[in-house]
Amino acid sequence: MPTLTFIQHDGSEQTVQAEVGQSVMQVAINNQISGILGDCGGSCSCATCHGYVEPDWAEHMPAAASYEVDMLSCAMNVDDRSRLTCQINMTPELDGLIIRLPASQT
Fold first, then answer.
1. Is residue 97 a contact partner of residue 4, using CB atoms and an 8 Å limit?
2. I need a surface site. Which of 29, 39, 61, 81 has the fewest CB within 10 A?
């Protein structure tokens, strides 16, 4: 199983195991990660699962679809590393992925 590390804005970390095919948002919810709400259940319609992909992982990520980019406009403190975690599905290649969580979602 791939691992996934969530880093809160205060620097605290939680590393969890993820099933291949699960969204990063679902992994966070299943592991009670603070800062990932997933109010829409993963349908890319709320931006409450906003996270920042660590720069070293950016090249491993599929590009964000236009509807994800549109929804990110509803999130606070968006930057070029911003993604909706409901739109990132875990693969074996993403083993070790690191997602930072914004202060606005604590």
1. yes
2. 39
Sequence-ordered list of residues with C-beta below 8 angstroms from that of 90, at least 6 positions apart, any chain:
2, 4, 18, 19, 20, 21, 22, 23, 24, 27, 97
Which tokens sit at 93? 């290649």
Structure tokens that stand for 64 in this block: 């964000």
Distance, CA of 23 to CA of 85 (rounded, Å):
7
The structure's pTM equals 0.93
Task: Label residue 65 left, alpha or beta by phi (over 0 means left) and psi (-120 to 50 means alpha).
Answer: beta
Contact status, residue 35 vs residue 101, Cβ threshold 8 Å: yes
User: Model confidence over 55-69: pLDDT tens digits?
Assistant: 999 888 889 999 999
What separation in angstroms does the CA of 21 have from each of 17, 24, 73, 90, 91?
A: 12, 9, 26, 5, 6
